[in-house]
């Protein structure tokens, strides 16, 4: 046992968990509301007790080494179990939490369906944020959040995943484009056209880059934009784009002045998945939300 008893042990583990997440002692200490020397000393004591180094020091920054990564995985499980125990006790005693935490790689994956759910369950509070794919996966694995809604779906041995929708990536062109009257296209026919793409921190960008490479070319990028600006650039006729149908064609919003062409030579299907940790206890509110998404998602995204 680490010196100081079980309370101190949990405190040390929490300090380690936060430092591992931020990978900077000064910033981690600020988040924990303690001094930087106190945090450094706590981590040093923990390393002494384990007789290993958990971090590689790189100037003011720190980086988990191989041992630290393995230890972090176990520490995350400890706190996930504690949180699960708390949630289960609240359910048993009739004091269920009405808070649900959710991370998505694109907020439009929740368009329509989240609004409808909250209209039906006005007492529920959903803490939703948007993260890049790797961050979403890490937060799910650590037990920080209840659910991830992502493209592609997050899967793993310790993760439950339900594919909510198989969506298709299509070529989107302005109605003034020379191919706008067609239903489908071989993608190499537009290899010389200017493309509008999402910036690189979007996980979907890697998918569209791969599609173009499979068609035998690298896209000529005219604009890199946020997904909110994508449709505006298309409507301004500044280029064409590869986009999933869920970003363009949503039944509850109607249609737009854009043409969508199926790509003939490639399988461009992608999976929208809802994922949760097998070992994490989900409150009654969380289970209700999960079941609603599984049963009703198709009503909102094509």
TrEMBL record:
Transmembrane segments: none annotated. The keyword Transcription applies. Signal peptide: none annotated. Keywords: DNA-binding, Transcription, Transcription regulation. One of its GO terms (cellular component) is protein-DNA complex. GO terms for molecular function: DNA binding; DNA-binding transcription factor activity. Pfam families: HTH_1, LysR_substrate. PANTHER family: HTH-TYPE TRANSCRIPTIONAL REGULATOR CYNR, TRANSCRIPTIONAL DUAL REGULATOR HCAR-RELATED. Belongs to the LysR transcriptional regulatory family. This is HTH lysR-type domain-containing protein. It comes from Clostridium drakei.
């Amino acid at each position: 046992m680490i010196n100081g008893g079980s309370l101190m042990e949990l405190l040390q583990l929490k300090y380690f968990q936060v430092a591992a997440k931020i990978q900077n002692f000064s910033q981690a200490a600020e988040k924990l509301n303690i001094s930087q020397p106190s945090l450094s000393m706590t981590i040093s004591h923990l390393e002494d007790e384990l007789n290993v180094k958990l971090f590689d020091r790189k100037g003011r920054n720190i980086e988990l080494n191989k041992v630290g990564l393995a230890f972090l995985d176990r520490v995350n499980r400890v706190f996930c179990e504690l949180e699960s125990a708390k949630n289960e006790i609240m359910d048993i005693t009739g004091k269920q939490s009405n808070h649900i935490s959710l991370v998505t790689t694109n907020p439009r994956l929740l368009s329509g369906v989240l609004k409808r759910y909250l209209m039906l369950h006005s007492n529920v509070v959903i803490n939703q944020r948007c993260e890049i794919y790797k961050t979403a996966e890490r937060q799910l694995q650590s037990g920080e959040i209840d659910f991830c809604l992502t493209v592609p779906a997050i899967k793993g041995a310790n993760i439950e995943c339900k594919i909510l929708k198989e969506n298709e990536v299509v070529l989107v062109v302005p109605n003034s484009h020379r191919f706008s009257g067609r239903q489908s296209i071989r993608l190499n026919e537009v290899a010389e056209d200017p493309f509008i793409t999402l910036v690189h921190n979007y996980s979907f960008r890697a998918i569209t880059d791969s599609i173009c490479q499979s068609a035998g070319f690298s896209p000529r990028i005219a604009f890199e934009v946020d997904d909110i600006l994508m449709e505006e650039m298309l409507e301004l006729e500044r280029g064409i784009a590869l986009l999933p149908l869920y970003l363009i064609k949503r039944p509850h919003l109607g249609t737009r002045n854009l043409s969508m062409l199926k790509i003939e030579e490639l399988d461009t299907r992608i999976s929208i998945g809802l994922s949760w940790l097998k070992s994490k206890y989900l409150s009654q509110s969380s289970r209700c939300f999960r079941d609603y998404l599984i049963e009703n998602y198709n009503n909102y995204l094509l």
